Structures are given as structure tokens and as C-alpha cells.
Amino acid sequence: MNLVNLAEVAAGYRKGEAAIEGIDLALAKGDFLGLIGPNGCGKSTLIRTIAGVVPQYSGEIRIGGENLSRMKRRDLARYIAVVPQETIPSIAFEVRQLVMMGRYPHLGRMKAPGIEDQRLVDVALEQTAATQFIGRRIDELSGGERQRVFIARALAQNPQVLLLDEPTNHLDINYQVEVFDLLYKLNHDRGLAIICATHDLNYAAEYCKRVALMDKGRIRALGPASEVYNAEVLAEVYGVGIRVEAGQRVIPLSRRMEGERL
Ligand code: ADP
Ligand code: MG
After folding, report:
1. Is the shortest distance between the CB of 153 and ligand 1 below 6 Å?
2. Do 245 and 193 lie in a common domain?
3. Per-residue model confidence as pLDDT tens digits over 35-84
4. CA dihedral 46, 80, 144, 204 (to 10 degrees)
5. Which residues, in sequence order, are bridge partners of residue 193?
6. How many domains does the chain have?
7. Do 181 and 56 sit in the same domain of this protein?
8. Do 124 and 85 sit in the same domain of this protein?
């Protein structure tokens, strides 16, 4: 059974205006899908739609075989965890408190977190090298530090599917590699299914088993990077000259690099 299944899905923010459309996508245990495509192509909308937070959608979305529109938020949250793009929560939670929120969907009604919940929070903080931030307020961390805390919260949720929206955006290269290595490990060791939107085509090729190239709200190509990374297609979608080396290393060609006089 697929963990996530989308058939002919369209979604948007205003009635009659689709930000994404014609989306067919299946995600099984052990999948690691990279979502790529230029700004505004619909990556975040697709992630939010699967997370059940885009109000208008048509087509069919099944999560663990259940119809998304009939699922309770709490059941969905036990199944799917989301690391949103660059969020600064309006309430200045303390780091451990924020990561503990990942346990809420698992707690019984009116139940306080138990020893096992505490342990899972500690493990999640360790996995993202965020233990050192305990006691600090989330709004007092740098963008990259905050991002690691949000990944820890998602891990504490212990989901079957992890959705991440450009998780390495604010990270220096050291932590970019660490985040992708962590995702690799979670995917490889536990079979955690992952969808990760990213602007880094080279990380996507290196780490993701498949990539979906989005263009104007649609999936233009889907498959291993070695198949999707076609220089002509990428150049057309991104609107810039592109060279692909070794089947997966993408180099954007500036006009200056091409020897053009600017
Ligand atoms: P990406 O993440 O690939 O940059 P998005 O999914 O954010 O793209 O955006 C897809 C389209 O939906 C864009 O045209 C964008 O302007 C629009 N859009 C995104 N978020 C909202 C929103 N909250 N309200 C209205 N339109 C939105
Ligand atoms: Mg986005």
C-alpha cells in the first residue's frame, strides 16, 4: 500500500485558480522524493496540500489508504510531519517545549507527556545537534539553528512520512550536508518516506531516489535524477542555460561564463 497517493490533484488558494494541477504522485515506504523547480512553480503548495492545509483541492488524496478530506487532524499528524519553510512562530516557545509539540498528536486526551515522550524529544534533539539550544527561545536562534529545531520537532512526531520545504535554505554548507545525511539515514535505516523541496539540484541528485521537476504547477518530469536532469528540459523550465555533468551534476551557465559580453 502506498503511504501517500495523489490522483489528478489540483489545489489553490482562491476558487477557480489552481496553483498546482494534474498531480499524480505515489509515495511508498522507503521512498525519498526531491521536489525541484523554479520559484512559484508550486513546490510549497504541493507539500501543504499533502499536509492538509491548503483549503481548496480537487482530485483524490489518500494518506495510508484513507481519504485526506475525511481524516482528523490528529490522525494525520501521527502519520505525516512537516518541516515548513522559514517559520518564526508567533509565540516565543522554548526549544524543548517546541520539540515536545511533536508528541502532542500521540498523547492521550488531557494527558501530560510521559517518560517515553521525554526520551523521544531528547533523541530528536540529539539527531539534529540541537540539544545545545535547550533553554533558549526559538525566536532567539539563527535561521539555521531554528531550522534544526523544527526538524527535531518533526522527528519527535515519529511519522511515517516526512515533508520538508527547503530545509537547508538558511544553513551553511556544513549543516546542509548534515541535514541531508540525517534524512538519508532516516530513510535508509527506518524506511521513513520523505518528500523534500529543495533548490539544490545537486543534493537532490545525490540523496533523493527520485526527483519531481515542477513547472507552472505541474510535474514536468518524475524519476531518478539521471533521467530527469536533461539539460534542455532544465534550461527551459529554469530559463537559464544549463550544463549537466556525469548525468546529475547541474551547472547553471551565466551569460558571462558563456563568454558573452554583458
Ligand atoms: P514554490 O514553493 O515552488 O516557490 P508556491 O507553491 O509557494 O511555489 O507557489 C505556487 C503559486 O501559488 C504561486 O503563483 C504563488 O504566488 C501562489 N501562492 C503561494 N502561496 C499562496 C498563498 N498563501 N495565497 C495565495 N497564493 C499563493
Ligand atoms: Mg516554496
Report:
1. no
2. no
3. 999 999 999 999 999 999 987 899 999 999 999 999 999 999 999 999 98
4. -60
5. 161
6. 2
7. yes
8. yes
